[in-house]
């Protein structure tokens, strides 16, 4: 999975939650959704514990892919179309 991909957690207490991939560390993905998991403290999750939903074309995803600063609110709003609230 690549930076700025939209994924859904399929294991753990976050199962069913939707996140952006905001980075990678060793063998883990760093995930953030802007509200429950902020960019400042992303969730570490192994790739086998998430499923790829989409490669978002939102402004927040473009900023992440380009290495620009993205606010937590932008992440949360961009993920709204993928959440099943």
**Largest sheet geometry:** 5 strands, antiparallel
Q: So what's the overall shape?
A: globular
Strand order of the largest sheet: 4-3-2-1-5
Radius of gyration: 11 Å
Extended strand count: 5
Pattern of helices and strands = EEEEEHH
Distance between the termini: 25 Å
Low-confidence runs (pLDDT<50, min 5 residues)? none
What kind of assembly state do the chains in view correspond to?
Answer: single chain
Query: Helix/strand-derived class?
Result: alpha+beta
User: For the residues shown, what is the average pLDDT?
Assistant: 94
Query: Could you tell me the strand content as a percent range?
Result: 25-35%
User: Total number of helical segments?
Assistant: 2
Question: What would you note in describing this structure?
Answer:
This protein has 2 helices and 5 strands; from the N terminus they run E-E-E-E-E-H-H. It has 85 residues and is α+β, with helices and mostly antiparallel strands. Strands 4-3-2-1-5 form a 5-stranded antiparallel β-sheet, with no helix packed on it. The longest helix has 8 residues, at 59-66. The protein is globular and about 30 Å long.
